[in-house]
Putative mRNA 3-end processing factor
Amino acid sequence: MAPADVWVDPSEPEPKALVTHGHADHARGGHGTVWATPETLAIMEARYGPQNGVGVGYGETIRLGEVDVSFVPAGHVLGSAQIVLDYRDERVVVSGDYKRRADPTCTPFEPVKCDVFVTEATFALPVFRHPETGDEIDKLIARLHANPTRCVLVGAYALGKAQRVIAELRVRGHEAPIYLHGALARLCALYQELGVDLGELRMVADTPKAEMAGHVVMCPPGALNDRWSRRLPEPITAMASGWMRVRQRARQKNVELPLILSDHADWDELTTTLTEIAPREVWVTHGREEALVHWCETRQMKARALALVGFEDEDD
């Protein structure tokens, strides 16, 4: 943004960067100075090493050049924020990624009235309507109890999704130890250090095969069908992702138990958010831009798609 001489979620290293959250398609290493929430800075340091970071808490306002900048909860993952830019008499909100569902691991999304709202469109098609979170977690628990000699192996993105699945299991009364692939250990430990209670976690590498029968095991999606899974007791393969709504994706990944659990807003939540905020103009990024732009235009809301490079569908 020129009046502030700063980039928001730049895809390449820049002298000054405002970062919405810690996912790799939004937070890169190598920037000169980074402004982000303290939690996002901690995540970036865990992933990229020391940052020249300035922590900005929710609701706090800083001045960069001629622009007042504040960070408001986005409800996507721990520390995720919408970046509010006030310049003269205009307000722009860059939402980053966001969801409207309750999540025990992060602060809920807060709508902010603005002139221009920059929204994601990951699930911006009417076919994407996420089911109730508790129902999906209950499916996981039921399958676990029905197969006491096996384990349920849940593939989940290392930042945000894995910790949310664990926390949602705890909310539903699942108090047993949960076993982790080594790739998830560092960020789960960081979440716990930052005050998110995940209960008792154990490492698969430190556990005899038979001891994991009747338990939940978590791994990154890429390990679901890897040789690593052979050390587990007859795993029932599950995956937690909004993309599990698409049966072909579940089949491609050999997923036996699809869990439709997303950290992005679905179609109804996207359109409800735009109705609630009622911006003068909507800019739509990385996802199904055309459908959401069309929805805006049919409601006399000015909208356009931003063709941004480097923003991709995550293993939501």
In short: Residues 133-146 form the longest helix (14 residues). The helical segments are 38-48, 133-146, 161-171, 182-193, 247-252, 267-277, 289-297. The longest strand covers residues 67-73. Residues 209 and 232 are 6 Å apart (CA to CA).
